[in-house]
Amino acid sequence: xxxxxxxxxxxxxxxxxxxxxxxxxxxxxxxxxxxxxxxxxxxxxxxxxxxxxxxxxxxxxxxxxxxxxxxxxxxxxxxxxxxxxxxxxxxxxxxxxxxxxxxxxxxxxxxxxxxxxxxxxxxxxxxxxxxxxxxxxxxxxxxxxxxxxxxxxxxxxxxxxxxxxxxxxxxxxxxxxxxxxxxxxxxxxxxxxxxxxxxxxxxxxxxxxxxxxxxxxxxxxxxxxxxxxxxxxxxxxxxxxxxxxxxxxxxxxxxxxxxxxxxxxxxxxxxxxxxxxxxxxxxxxxxxxxxxxxxxxxxxxxxxxxxxxxxxxxxxxxxxxxxxxxxxxxxxxxxxxxxxxxxxxxxxxxxxxxxxxxxxxxxxx
Length: 365
Known about the structure:
Blueprint: E1 4-7, E2 16-19, E3 22-26, E4 34-35, E5 38-45, E6 48-53, E7 64-67, E8 69-71, H1 74-86, E9 93-97, H2 100-112, E10 121-127, H3 134-144, E11 152-158, E12 171-176, H4 179-190, H5 192-196, H6 201-215, E13 216-220, E14 226-232, H7 236-248, E15 254-256, E16 261-264, H8 267-276, H9 283-297, H10 302-315, H11 323-330, H12 334-346, E17 351-353, E18 362-364
Parallel strand pairs: 10-11
Antiparallel strand pairs: 1-5, 2-3, 3-8, 4-5, 5-6, 6-7, 9-12, 10-12, 13-14, 14-16, 15-16, 17-18
């Protein structure tokens, strides 16, 4: 195929493309028409494009090679969610985290957008109170991620007051050092709503898992019980987006403007959150969430009993259960179980299946 030079402002077409039951994004349409008053241009050849712009001065940006189309799959959507939560918006495309699994997902995401692993640079921010030496820290990141020694450019020591918990192996800053690539990332974030509205629902779940890996947090009480889950962001539009996406999966949340977070509470909501496995890409938080929810299930908080019953019946939609079976499931008293069931029935939350003769009636969702 012969090389062809085109200007960004002359391109049109669909941002999201379906081909042979696979979904792709047209990367060229993510770029702005101009950068600092210079027109963005592409040299197109064999499925790839060289991105550059017309200039008169020698201090111009280095050209960027990218695939014209990137496959939208689980790794792409998880990476996009991680970038929304943890990514930089400045001149350098950067994802910062202390979890190796998240860093690996970031590497996969950058690769789908055309960034070779060999061109990625990473530096580690290590707390001065860490007991690990630099050799141990670098060895940890090389052993637990896709990165190689050539990717790691150095370690910087962080000084701070207080005696809070620290990351013994530090926090890794993964960077793709290209302003043109940052324009591509900015285009992705600016078109996020359009992307999410043109992909299957399961892909949105991948996106949420990436976002919660970055900025989600389970809140555990002193007794070890799960109290709430939060997603933190100072950007109002981001919190609204996360809350709306959670609602699509049956999780009702509150946007707490004074605390800059989206808050998820209530037994049913927390149970659905656990079921969706939204902390899949953060091992420590997932373990904390599951242990906290198990403790919550065993708690005797009266206000949660009705929600526990509803959530149990929702998980077992195809079945029906007697009051005695529900009582034994939660170790409620029989009197309270009947009280909760009648209350839920009166408000239309559950239905009653009448029994014949001495056979007790059953309850279902």
